[in-house]
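Late entry, written up from scratch paper. The run itself happened at the end of the previous shift, but nothing got recorded in the book at the time, so transcribing now.
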Amino acid sequence: MPEGNWETDATPASYKPADSIGFHIMARGSCWLEFEGRESILEEGDIAAFPFGTPHRLGVGTGGRLIDPGADLPPKPWREIPMLRYRERGEPVRILCGYIQCEAANFAPFRQALPKYIHVRTIGSQDGDWLAGAIVQIVAEVDKPQRGGTSMLERLTEVAFMEVLRRQFLRDDGVETGWLAAVRDPILGRCLTLLHGDPRRDWTAETLAREAGLSRSALAGRFAAVLGTSPIRYLRDWRLYLASIDLKLMGKPVGLVAHEAGYGAEAAFNRAFARRFGIPPAEWRRGAVK
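Output as recorded:
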């Protein structure tokens, strides 16, 4: 809770998981946020999120002292959420900083739909905005820890973040290419629902086109125009994403994951996975479950 004039490098820390999204919740007061040479104002009730950990700064006034909350945090593990206080003259500012792991960020089409910076304002945006109420409850859970409070805080944060994403995506309603445009497209949206709902089915371009009510060439053209890929490549990427989830959370042998991802040989799966994620699946798993 800084007071007076100050500024800080608020770039999400490198120790956070690669699939995490850093955020700031303005619990009290206001401050400026500088991002890629542009400045915006965060007011009480605002949420700022950075899906890619893009460097940015926060501050109040000009010429204030530089504070480094990351360096001032106590060593882990934390029994309670740590709070840092910086006492100087001026109006107090309170910011809740954290991150949320977003497994979907490992799915390339979804990741490409995310902006570098998301800013959602709750107070004054709508009468009775439930997201504003959720933020109040998040602050209350931090201020007065109770038994089971950690789980409650995690769920509240997840729900709030999902709403932040939903509002951001609704802003982009006019986008004509990319994953969001495909989801809204009647034909492509149906295709994605089919592929997502039954990824292990022996899909071919012909069977998917038949389900969509288009010719194979027409469907391929639509995928290329909106998503920049083919239906089968999209399915491959979706299967590899699901494989990454299985490797991280389910503890399945690599050979079984390869089979469920539609690969007849583990070696072929290893090569495809390495092309998508940069490292072989066994090595990826070791890093993901730390």
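The beta strands are 6-9, 20-28, 31-35, 38-42, 47-50, 57-60, 65-66, 94-101, 118-120.
(Scratch paper discarded after transcription.)
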